[in-house]
Every structure is written in C-alpha cells, then in structure tokens.
C-alpha cells in the first residue's frame, strides 16, 4: 500500500478522526513561526506550500506530522542537479534509481509516501515552494 504524501489529507482513513493539520485543529496555527515572504516568489511558494504540502509537512516543527518539517531540509539535500524539483516531481523514481539520500529519507519515515507533482505543479511553482522553504 502506498500513501501519496502531500495530497488532500492523505493518511487519514474513514475510521480515523480528522485532527487538522499535523494534529493541530486550527490549520492557521500550523504557520505560527512568523515566516514572512520577502518577494512574490516566496509568497506564491507559501500559498502553494499551504495547499499542497502542509497536509503532511508543517512549516515548523509541529508533531505528530506524517512528514517531517522542511525546516533546514534544503541544506541537507545533495548538491547535484535540481534535487528538490526532481524529488517533488516524482520521489518514487528517485528512490527506485537507488539514490542513497532518497532511500535514507525513505528509511527514516514511518509511512510509505510518494511525491508525484509533475503534472500538478509547474517547474516555476516548485521553485517558488523551494524559495519559501528556504525561509524556514
């Protein structure tokens, strides 16, 4: 079974109680770390993050969350190519390629997940999300 990460409330089954974003009943509280976008790209990235990512990733360290906070994540990514974009577009193909970092992330997560936004988000939108994540 695969749970698609960052989809509309993925991971919440019919018999489970909906506890909001990462266990926070008021989703506006999931962005209380005062991240202030400085430009249009970061603002667009914040809006896209809140729609597509915050169901699984909090912009700050709120637990329990299906996925980890993305705070500092860009510093840990391999410096080869455009790793963030490639992983967001199709994490499953990155994992299946034998990529050591992707498989490390996979091993650290307690749920099976997949990011598959290639047909949902444009390259510019993914770049805007990355710009917002840099602020965290």
Structure commentary:
The protein is mainly α and 136 residues long. The chain is built from six helices and no strands. Helix 1 (40-52) crosses helix 6 and helix 3 (83-89) crosses helix 6. The radius of gyration is 14 Å and the shape is globular. The chain starts with 39 loop residues before the first helix and ends with a helix.
Percent of residues in beta strands: under 5%
Amount of helix: 25-40%
Q: Span between N and C termini?
A: 32 Å
Give the helix tally.
6
Radius of gyration, CA atoms, in whole angstroms: 14 Å
Tell me about the largest β-sheet: none
Task: Catalogue the unreliable spans.
Answer: 1-19
What structural class do you assign from the helix and strand content? mainly alpha
Report the mean per-residue pLDDT as an integer: 76
The 3D shape can be described as: globular
Order of helices and strands: HHHHHH
Total count of strands = 0
